Amino acid sequence: MKPTERAGITLIETLTTIGIVGILIALLLPAVQMVRESSRRVSCSNHLKQMALGLHAYHDVHRRMPAAAIAVSTPKVISICGTGASYLSLDVIGEGNRGNGFHGTSWMLRLLPYVEQAAVFDRWDFRTSVSGNRVTAESDVRLFYCPSRRKTVVNRSIMFGEWSRGGNDYGGCIGACNGWHNCGSHETWMVPDGRRATGPCKGVFALQPSVRFADATDGLSNTIMIGEVQRLDLGTDVTTSRDGWAVGGVSTHFSTCSDECRGPNSKIFEEPGSHHPGGAQFAKADCAVQFISNTVSTTAFSALGSMGQGDVESSP
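The structure assignment produced for this chain is given below.
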């Protein structure tokens, strides 16, 4: 090389190097995202495990599960979305919006002292409703959030009262039944008819009186207790699931076979789902956590939601 000549790379070599680096990054990013989702899924599974253990601790103290919801209102006959048929129903969410002397609260409120959230529980004023406890109810309880979904709610229209905090990504299983009115205030059915909530529906969570683990004749390992609840931010109706860990009703529950009976991530507000690819996670009544695929048989999924036999029927 002559003294006046300089070593270097050509433009073509530079572009080739940049192209190779770009290809490597494109190949690496999906792998990184998969690792991150795997970590978030493990964290979500741990949340379900902690909640399940907390429910067992509650059961040890009270000898029964917490009631799905507490309401003092008188059930009323509600017409089903203009069809002419009517059922006796209880508007738990509506009561949560009322003031002194009402409740509308969920089982998750009563779980708080058993999952190291006694400080939040101690601030609750049981003389008034959920809305009367708004400051406390809007507390973000990290355990109640799945990291794959969100820690705070972006779309406020899915929150109870359009709140911006205090949401939940988990709910209790009411069994395999059509538990709620599909329009209006999504009242909870109170009559034993077909797959209505107090009929052959045999979930771990029920309105008063609450159930005991001894009632699980299928066995605790064969019964879903809690799981992930979908939020319909990708569907046509984002208002139906009404986030809020303190709120009873559909906000904090799901069915393994509602009137649609489609299974996980079906965009039916009564049924469970998640932001994990391909399915959702559930904790059985024995505290074992299981990932269940979207393609699970609806018959099998219905049976898992039930404590006993006899609730897998044709839709009424």
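Interim note for the steering committee: The chain has six helices and ten strands. Confidence is low (pLDDT under 50) at residues 310-316.
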